[in-house]
Amino acid sequence: MSPTPTRPSDDLVPVAGGGLLDRRMFLRQGMMLGGAGLGLLAVDADAADFPRWMKTPGGPLTNYGEPSPYEKEAIRWISANAKAPGHGISWTPLHRLEGTITPNGLHFERHHNGVPAIDPEQHRLTLHGLFSKPIQWSLEQLFRYPMVSRQCFVECGGNSNAGWHDEPIQTPVGYFHGLVSSSEWTGIPLSTLLDEAGLQPEARWLVAEGADAGAMNVSIPIEKALDDTLLALYQNGERIRPEQGYPMRLILPGFEAVLNVKWLQRLQAVREPLMSRNETAKYTELEPSGKARQFTFIMEAKSVITQPSPGFRLKGPGLYQISGLAWSGRGTIRRVDISADGGRSWAPAALQEPLLSKCFTRFRLPWRWDGSPLILKSRAIDDTGYQQPERSTLIAERGQRGYFHYNAIVAFAVDSDGSLRHVYA
Amino acid sequence: MEASVMSMPSLSSPSRSGLRLIWRGSLFIGLLMPLWTPLKAAPEGPKLGVSITQESILPLDISVFPDGTGLPPGKGTAVDGKTHFEALCQGCHGVKGSGGDAEELVGRSPLSGARPDQTVGNYWPYATTIFDYIRRAMPLNAPLSLSNDQVYALTAYLLYLNGIVTETSEMNATTLRAIQMPNRDGFYRVWGNGGR
Question: Among A34, A323, A341, B107, which has the minimal tally of Cβ within 10 Å of its Cβ?
């Protein structure tokens, strides 16, 4: 799949180097291009030999639909432990998706020891520790509670970690940067449940624990728990899938995914963090000094072009649409700039509305490629004014051994044959 | 449960939580930042949670904190730990915790070196974390299968392999929380310090 080039039109004025065009161009041109398309169809229809799917009845109704069999490449790629198939990750194929919602079957996965087969009848949520009383809920009870919905991204702290390597890996964008997905989550504001249990003022952290094999545990700061944290029960309208935490998980918008504990069964309110393995040995970032950053919860602003991107090939010079995703754990994306000359000049992309806080934002920009080699980049700026850093800046600040929280600008080289590859530039 | 009941959340009466927020808000406006974050407008729920006893939580509560809270009775030394390790762990983590397919468990190389392994020995800030993690998560093929004595012994063995205790040091609730790990002061907190 490659964006289809269309004939360049003479009144398109480049707004930055490398053939970047005005972000409003597609809107202005839409009518005209549509009209031309219809004309062609009308000519073809007369002589058409109708395709076989128009001459025989189609397939039956289904209880649960599946993607077209022609879309076999829109799948998660899996990297798992040979001795333990449930221990590993799978990436969202960002390069095969459009819009801002990740289909549930393609949400990235990170499991520490497989997907538990939880019987919802037996599952309980228990709150204890610094509450006025220990308290427990069944699913049936929780479904009576007031719920809210919000869209937000969930990103693994280890997303894009190959970016720390000395040489860029050559893989489709989703399998480099796709430990991030975005969904509409519906559930109970956690504060409602904390309130009911009588959270004590001296409680500063909640130790959250899953009901998976390994009882994954991590400490959550109380400020976040009382702010916008959800006990999520639904994802994109349906009950959360087993690999996303069925029957319930935490959603902490903008925080690294490990705190969004799946299969949640226990919250213990305490004064000091537990110092679990996943907040000490992992999800901390070693700096060149030998000291490590800890409790680096917020996923900073980031963007990546998803089309055109490595693994695809441009079919000759012409007009293309650049499309990509931007997000920030601190708030709303204010601007995304695109460069087609390696960062010498930048043009602002069109941002698809609505612009939602801590959520995927789709950006797009028309581009006329003249067939010469060049370098494409995108950079996100959020509403705190923070700008996604160049890789060299990030490395100057953090070194290369931190593993987590890689959010540098992503660059692709376009070669004259239309192929694309990851580069550090 | 009746379907009609499920579809009727109590939306008719004004939320008491909402009123409380207004009250707290006016109290804090213009004052210093409150030390205690007031609950935001938590929507009021039907309060269906069931009170349970502290005793009924004990078996569920497997959290172990740096100050030793949660450490159960029991004990073990590296001598016993070695036997358990060879039987239950070595297949994945390698002989003496190195060179296996799974994580390296041993190493004391300096953290400021070129590409140091980050292990229990040179990276983990608290010994209690070893207990907490092994008890809940290991062995990977059978989590929650070890006795407390086995977990103490395996913890002692990993500390011994990393040169932190001797082969015969007994690990129990008192001795384990007293261990000072080499990288105890190797971390700084970003959250809560206004940093990025």
Answer: A34
